[in-house]
Amino acid sequence: MVGHGRISLAAVICGIAFLLSGAIGEAGFIPKLDRVKFDDGEVYRQGCIVGDGQLRSRPCRFGYRNSKRRVVLFGDSHAAEWGPALLRLARADHWQVIVLTRASCPAALTNIDRYCNTWRHNSLKRIRRLRPGLVVVASAANYHHYWTLRKRRGLDRQASERPLVHGMIRTLRYLKRWSRKVVLIRDHSAAPFSVTDCLRRNPTRPQRCDFRSTRRKAWSYEFKAAGRVDGVGVIDPQPMLCPGRRCYAVDGRHLVYRNYGHLAAAWVRTRNRWLGRNLNDPWNGRDVKPVLSNDSSDERSRPGYLVRSIPSPMNGQATSD
Hints:
This protein has helices at residues 2-27, 42-45, 77-80, 83-93, 114-130, 157-178, 195-201, 221-226, 238-241, 265-269, 272-279, and strands at 49-50, 61-63, 70-75, 96-102, 134-138, 149-150, 153-154, 181-185, 211-212, 232-235, 246-247, 250-251, 254-255, 291-292, 299-302, 305-308, 314-315. The chain is an alpha/beta fold. The protein has one domain: SGNH hydrolase (Rossmann fold), CATH 3.40.50. The N and C termini lie far apart (62 Å).
């Protein structure tokens, strides 16, 4: 009986230790796992990403609202997700940021649906009136985004790539005409599973929730288009997110993904200096430089959970997919 009592006590102690280790792991994440899906940033909170039947963006201005240094953030939700870093940069550099974003609507001048097409047309007209110093443009580019229409007939993703490329070329040329500098932030890998659910199961071993890069050149219409328009800068976050093609679920204590396809605002906000280095100040005459991948792993252990930092990229040649 004494032996059974010791075994039972040991089992209870082990169980409590296991639960506490999980609680410590979850408590160490920024934001917490039960809040990360809501961590979408200022652009969302201020209602500056439109949808449904809305045909025009609200007058969403951030940073120094009277500044003549105007920056436009233009595209879909994959543009809006970079808002937290861009807005922090704007406050430091005295920029005025105007946000023109719509959910599930690419920047490319191609046929998606009546609402998206009309919103895009109205937004481009607004950019022409603003004559900004910088336009930062981004759109989702993966297997699911986007499927276009031709003569009211839906095209599959493979058939949509060509009209998406041509449409993005038209958009970038238009933006180049009416702004001083245009920079494309290339789309990044989407997670093939719920990173949040995985971290709930592995709070003390977040490396189990890393995944291999899912980005494919076949679906990179925005990147292909940028290469065919002179003077358009390209920033590629992929080497930072997925060094050595391994995409990190956690960077230090920060959760990187808020859902399958979008980055967490708290993590994006920490990338303001990275974004600033690669955008450069559009009023100082320097060109945008591409990003070099740094594949060193920089892993550090902390009590309760593994803490790893995504390697910081330097300026140089971007890596291939």
